[in-house]
Amino acid sequence: MPPAQPMPHHALAGASGSAVPEHPPAGATLERAMCWVNGLRANPDAPALSVSDRGFTLADGCFETMRAYRGVIFCLDAHMARLSVTAARLGIPVPPHHEQTVAAATRELRAARADASVRLTMSRGTGAGVAAPSGVVPTTVLLIGRLPAVPATLATTGITARIASGRRNEYAPSAGLKTLSYTDTVLALTEARDHGADDALFLDTAGHLCEGTSSNLFLVAGGIVRTPPRSCGILPGITRQTVLGILESMGIAADEAPIPPGELDAADEVFLTSSVREIAPVTRIGERRVGSGRPGPLTGRVRAAYRGLVASAIADELDGTA
Fold first, then answer.
1. Which of 7, 98, 253, 259 makes the best surface tag, with the fewest CB within 10 Å?
2. 10-residue block means of pLDDT along the chain (322 residues)?
3. Are 196 and 238 contacting, i.e. CB atoms less than 8 angstroms apart?
């Protein structure tokens, strides 16, 4: 069972020519963070978790980060499906209050008509030692906050990246799962920033390109689009899946096969995909510029189609609840 489904085919019509909004209209600014802990509304600034929670002591859990536009969470069902798959793989039962909590948060967010970042975290619960305890109730935290700042020049100048010194382990039992264990990611991003880059690109243990620190990777060379496959240990991103659908609607097949890092040297365009940052062009990797050193035309088309798709989906949701 795949952890995320692509957007419905009819929703991709804008990528192939029919009229859709060019971009999602801006929503309200979230005045204050909203938080639910174990199904109950909580003060996001107050202590709320046990000191023996395994998410805190062992990073034993999973999470989803989503983006809301005008109070509507884009691809909510796909994110919830992936969370359920990850929790099942980890042996963490989804608590009974989960659906009610998401519904309550969705209602409040919709009422605020805010643009926001939404994170749902689930840990195994409390317990000592490393072995997974039995009969423990999972801990859940749903936090709605302001979107992180994204440079206004992202679409016109892109970002820079470098190859991380660490590797993604495609053989790890947690490969492809969105777990709480993000130490490798934090260190890779810190290393990249220390070297003047905006992001880092991981290789897998076989030396193939894998993914960004919190994003999926796409290359364009000679009109061919390539993206690392799940066998390289990537997280199967929700935005990645949506972009694959957009490319298909454009009549462009994406080659999902292992990519040697040397292919970056021949790439005309490189871009990263994620829920919060959407489509991020990469214009320099290490000391070498990508293509012309500016965001490429296909990246621009994909970004415009993605934003149009979001705008259309959000408008449909709001019209349906007006």
1. 253
2. 42 44 77 95 93 97 97 97 97 94 95 96 96 94 94 91 98 97 98 98 98 98 96 98 97 96 96 97 97 96 96 89 54
3. no
Q: How far apart are CA 22 and CA 20, in angstroms?
A: 6
Q: Please state, in angstroms and as integers, the Cα–Cα distance from residue 109 to each residue in 146, 227, 309, following that order.
A: 12, 34, 21
> Are the folds of 31-145 and 154-311 the same?
no
Alpha-carbon distance 259 to 63, whole Å?
28
Strand partners, 201: 163, 212
Residue 11's pLDDT is 45
Q: What does the domain layout of the chain look like in residue ranges? A: 31-145, 154-311
Strand bridging mode 199-204 / 159-168:
parallel
Contact 280, 151 (CB under 8 A): no
CB 88 within 8 A of CB 75: no
Residues near 45 by beta carbon (within 8 Å), at least 6 away in sequence: none
Chain mean position to CA 311: 18
Instruction: Kindly give, in sequence order, each residue whose CB lies less than 8 Å from that of residue 171, ignoring residues fewer than 6 positions away.
Output: 205, 233
Residue type present at position 250: M
The answer to whether 285 touches 161, Cβ cutoff 8 Å, is yes
Instruction: State residue 109's pLDDT score.
Output: 94
Fold for the domain defined by 31-145? D-amino Acid Aminotransferase; Chain A, domain 1 (3.30.470)
238-249 vs 76-90: helix axis angle to the nearest 10? Answer: 130
- H or E, element range at 38: none
Q: What angle do CA 173, 175, 178 make, to 5 degrees?
A: 110
Return the pLDDT at 21: 54
Neighbouring-strand partners of residue 226: 219, 255
List the structure tokens of 48.
Answer: 């709320």
Q: Which CATH architecture has domain 154-311?
A: Alpha-Beta Barrel (3.20)
